[in-house]
Write a structure and sequence with these properties.
Blueprint (H helix, E strand, L loop, with lengths): L5 E6 L4 H10 L1 H4 L3 E4 L1 H13 L5 E4 L7 H10 L5 E5 L9 H13 L4 E2 L2 H8 L27
Parallel strand pairs: 1-2, 1-4, 2-3, 4-5
Length: about 150
């Protein structure tokens, strides 16, 4: 991979162990990129990469409930995030649910790939499109769908 990516990593408390396992598994790849994380997740990610012998570039924002999800969403809007991995705890209610939905929405609106489980994260980071300098993602189109145009 020629391009250095900025990758957002976020994990709820019940998913932090999963995030650390994923980071360890992908340490070689992640060590070449700028990682932006919410509070505790960032500290865990940084320590996991250091333990693997890397000197990671990890930027820690606030914890999610204290505005970290919002800070990362702002980076998405400013086109500062290339990829997001957000391991969400879908089994327990989150007090900052609105912030979570806002971050997911901003990734969709601004065409930032976001993985919400390890499998999709692995698929995304191994995509050959990251190396294809001619590939330009098609921006989302928000327009009324005309059935007649497509002969439906």
């Amino acid at each position: 991979m020629r391009r250095r990516l900025t990758i957002a990593l976020v994990a709820h408390d019940q998913r932090k162990a999963d995030m650390v396992d994923w980071v360890i598994y992908n340490a070689e790849f992640l060590s070449h990129h700028h990682l932006v994380c919410t509070g505790t997740t960032g500290r865990l990610v940084k320590q996991a990469l250091i333990n693997k012998g890397f000197q990671p570039d990890v930027e820690c924002k606030n914890s999610g409930p204290m505005g970290g999800d919002v800070e990362i969403a702002a980076m998405v809007v400013q086109k500062e995030i290339d990829l997001a991995v957000f391991l969400i705890d879908d089994l327990n209610p989150q007090p900052h649910e609105a912030d979570i939905m806002m971050l997911l929405r901003q990734c969709r609106v601004h065409n930032v790939p976001i993985a919400c489980n390890r499998y999709s994260a692995d698929l995304m980071i191994t995509s050959t499109l990251w190396d294809d300098e001619t590939y330009v993602p098609t921006p989302p189109r928000y327009e009324k769908f005309d059935r007649e145009k497509f002969n439906l």
